[in-house]
């Protein structure tokens, strides 16, 4: 190897140059890939006999104000595939309601519900156990301390139940993909699908293996040529090496005409029918590490 | 010179006075009767023994003087006055006699003038005495008006079944505990659903004789168990505590979930931190009382009901 080449390859400047090139490429890739996170608004409510009695309305307003920031931060950390900072014009709203069980003991519950045109009328999520009635009775009801305690509880709930909440609630909000056709290719005969998305687009971890759900229109080509809505779960996704970057996923569960079956059981239908994707949803999500500054990241 | 009369008149008065005193003591203070007899009999006996031993002229002289003394009008008047005073005194005194039926019992009996139903506050105790197998039966003499007076008695656990009436010359004879009814305590226990409201003193519980009747006890409720009783109840027994714990488990934790232990423990702790509310009259087992809970803000009725006092400690579950 020529001397000048050895010098260049061992030089730190090459490393720096390489890094800059990679960063520039990453930025370019990010710039090129549009953010598919749907805009969400958050609405907070406190209901329940004991909450009404123990929390004066002025203190309740302060608490709700404090909790709004905390909840938005926790939602960003755990369900970052939705955009939780209200930029105006949000179409869908997450209602976070603190309530109580109707029967004794009236333990505190957390009700999460989605409202809006993009979220279909889903079966409501069962309230999540939030705090014991005894704690509610013995706490000092001052907004700052309650806010700290509630935030910690919500953080624990979100971390422990992230997968479940993603699949059963937050994943019901479709990703903001302008043309689903261009992002999702359904390969019925192979029981596979190709999803052309970058992790950055939905704020997912680079190393994550997301799972998706596609709502689609199924047009059967064989008599009686039925046409109807269906749902297809895409799991075991792996990142492909092709360009543009894409995930190759297996079709697992298929819901069509109110029948829920394994996709493999309806291979023939999936192979012959025309599958028109309508909306793309995330079923499994791993948050992207949050860059906090030089030398540090926070893993939610 | 004092006029003279027959000595037999004074002697008769003396005998009547003696018999009347003996009879009154027999009726009202039988334990004092032996003392009266002990004083009377030797006096007569000693006199009867020594009288024949005295010289005849001495006995004659003493006999004459005694006859003269008894014959005098003053003697008769004194005896009449004394008899009259004692009779008037006998009209102003009456007695209660309490006999213990259960020899294993030892208790303190309190006597209260008036009627149980007419009480409007604290019952002033006229007299108290211990009753046990050694001093049973025990009599107590009380001053009364000549037309008589109602009284009632209670022990720490029992109360006279119905008021008694003290009359001159008619002693009130009672048996304990045969003539007494066991007392009851009402434990007003707020359910967990109610407790936050009680923190602000929003509700008042009243116990009445009947719907719209006189108030026996009333109190603004708080989260503690309220013990409604005539006398300050003793500490909650381990059995009662266990009973409440079982009740709470049934209400709050039917699935026997260990996660609910915290809730059960809090309610039980509050119930056991009891507050005593005295009643205007003793609550007898067997009574049926009316209760009501009203708002302290606008006195509107929140809930009413009846409670049957069928046990020494009756739970009144407050849930609405």
Please characterize this protein's 3D structure:
The complex is a heterodimer of chains A (300) and B (320). Helix content of chain A is 33%, strand content 30%. Chain A is α+β, with helices and mostly antiparallel strands and 300 residues long. Chain A folds into 2 domains: 40-172; 180-284, no CATH class. In chain A, strands 5, 6, 7, 8, 9, 10 and 11 form a 7-stranded antiparallel β-sheet that branches. A 4-stranded mixed β-sheet of chain A has the order 1-2-3-4. Chain A has a two-stranded antiparallel ribbon with strand order 12-13. In chain A, strand 5 (184-187) and strand 6 (192-195) form a beta hairpin. The longest helix of chain A has 22 residues, at 57-78. Chain A is elongated and about 65 Å long. Chain A starts with a helix and ends with a strand. Chain B is an alpha+beta fold and 320 residues long. Chain B folds into 3 domains: 7-91, no CATH class; 94-182, Sandwich (Immunoglobulin-like), CATH 2.60.40; 185-318, no CATH class. Helices cover 33% and strands 30% of the residues of chain B. A 4-stranded antiparallel β-sheet of chain B has the order 3-2-5-7, with no helix packed on it. A 4-stranded mixed β-sheet of chain B has the order 14-13-10-17, with no helix packed on it. A 4-stranded antiparallel β-sheet of chain B has the order 12-11-15-16, with no helix packed on it. In chain B, helix 1 packs across helix 3, helix 1 packs parallel to helix 4 and helix 6 packs across helix 7. Chain B is elongated and about 110 Å long. The mean pLDDT of chain B is 89. Chains A and B meet through helix 3 and helix 5 of A and helix 5 and helix 7 of B.
